[in-house]
Amino acid sequence: MANILDSSVKYVTGVGEARAKVLEKELGILTVGDLLRHYPFRYIDRTKIYRIADIDERMASSLVQLRARVTGVGYAGAGRKQRFSVYVSDASGSAELIWFRGIKWMEKNVEVGREYLVFGRPMFYRGELSMAHPELELVEKAMNRPVRSGMQGIYPSSEKIASTFGAKGFYNIVCNAWILAQEHIAETMPEAVRRSYDLMPLREAMFNIHFPQSAEALARAERRLKFDEFLGVQLSVQSHRTDRMTKRNGFVFSRVGEFFTDFFEHRLPFSLTGAQKRVIREIRRDTVSGYQMNRLLQGDVGSGKTMVALMSMLLAVDNGFQACMMAPTEILARQHFATVSRLTEGMDLGVAILTGSSKAAERRRALEGIASGEVRILVGTHALIEDKVRFANLGYVVIDEQHRFGVEQRARLWTKNLQPPHILVMTATPIPRTLAMTLYGDLDVSVIDELPPGRQPIRTFHYTDAARLKLWGFLRKQIAAGRQAYIVYPLIKESETMDYKDLEDGFESVVRDFPLPEYRVTVCHGKMKPQDKEESMRQFKEREADILVATSVIEVGVDVPNATVMVIESAERFGLSQLHQLRGRVGRGGEQSYCILMTGEKLSREARARLRAMCETNDGFRLAELDLKLRGAGDINGTQQSGVAFDLKIANPTLDADLLQTAKEAAIALLDGDPALARPEHAALRALRARHAGGAKFDFSMIS
Ligand code: ADP
Ligand code: MG
User: Fold this and answer.
1) Looking at ligand 1, which atom is closest to the CA of residue 559?
2) pTM of the prediction?
3) Ligand 1 atom 24 nearest Cα
4) Of the residues 148, 397, 528, 661, which has the fewest C-beta atoms closer than 10 A?
């Protein structure tokens, strides 16, 4: 029997075909259940009704509600400057409500003489109260609202959603969805579990999350719904873990052979750090175990992950397997290819590259070599996982900077073989340690927690534009001393054209302030042709350019040890982990390096906190933890951006760490008694696990 929760959201009163499309496109809401799982991120108190006379200037810009009768309407201005006013009064005084948009609709719907609940932000002009674009609802109608709560939910929205549904419209469809589905919300949790973890029944929790009956009920509702999400994730993770540990289908790299030994003894340009050695040992241990390795390697920027990747690929080759290394960008893939080729020159390894912009000859060499087995190390971008690429015997895969890849892309690599290759995922955007441990069980997380010797900590400063001259002076000094500098402009998708304009203007002014022949400035951004990008990177790498002006395309992996200054323009527009990544482009040589964060004067509190954190610490783990905290539970994408692909709508792994731990214990206990969740009373849990299956792929599941 089909459950109403699984049927299309278009059946909810007030939605219909067209609006259902908007819901899907904007919020990913397909079904009635999806809509009810779209939770408010905050609430406003609708129980308090103010008298007009009691509203004063101190309340300006906070939301208030009043109950007043419409005494008349009026117009002012003309054409585009037109405004429409509704005059209202209660027993204590009067106010003016103003509209600049949607005037036609208002004049048609407002009825003079009737009483409304008015909800909006008070403004004062010469002591007179007014409100722009308030919400209006007939008092009679408000009294007959189908579902009542003193707290009204405010839902994550978008401009399109707001203009399609209006402020109250969205709330109304949630009410209607509730009325439609409430009888059909069945309990998912076995009674025993519910009791032992003191969880509110699901239906009650769903009701209270949308229509809180009290602050206490709301807190319990949140706890229950968070628990469900965590439990779903944990059931999925723990099942995969059990599954993997019962399969012994991993390739066995039993030998340490010629390539590895030759490299280690004759070619290694420096001695490995203790941490690099440890990680290589961990990979060794995994790859002889008979189980498929699925290891996450976290190491701060500049910690030397590439060397670990290369040496472990040599192990694969020593055992007769092919290895590939996948990077998130063209630039980075080319750089890895250059590094690997240089370090292994003359070793007869067969190293090739394949990217989206590989020319015919390069492409042919890669594809043919890979199929024949002649190419034993293939470096590239996600072009590596195109269907045309057929490996002879792929045994080992390195994925650099995993957060740039989606789960599905990783899955496709996996399915290229019947037997899954070992996988090493490397990232410099660390998932906080505690979080990684809990989300991934205690498996397969390696950490490089030591930088190569001789590195000096990067010094980070925050300047405003007023300090620009001083900054330029500093840059000139560094360049005179033979160093190089990056100047990075933000690139944020929504306003790409504007962003490129920023970059172009910036480039022009840098060229003006740093003229030839003394200074050589080059530019690199995503809109350039691949070969132009490459040429500009080459100039910078080979010290033919002193300054590289770029967008955040250079964010990951670029390695130019002689560069000592990273200037980040409009730094407030970058997230913490991005700032940290960018900073990691300098401080790679023995010289003291600097990161300069440029912003305007006006900054949000959160931006200030980010910049302060950057100036205070170089520790990527601390920054990652702080990042999750700063973004808080309101940000549904928070966890995704840190590289964790779980579908968490309400639970936040950092803020709700205790509950996550509880859910983990519950999951282990449940699976202990019923590994397949096959018992009838576990049917709903099975569905819950399935809903959260995607995220767990991060670790193990791509075999399936
Ligand atoms: P990341 O971990 O950010 O990918 P890289 O692998 O690019 O770091 O390494 C950063 C720089 O440090 C490179 O120039 C690399 O050659 C150098 N490096 C790596 N390991 C060592 C080491 N053990 N001793 C000295 N330099 C090293
Ligand atoms: Mg790297």
Assistant:
1) 7
2) 0.66
3) 452
4) 148
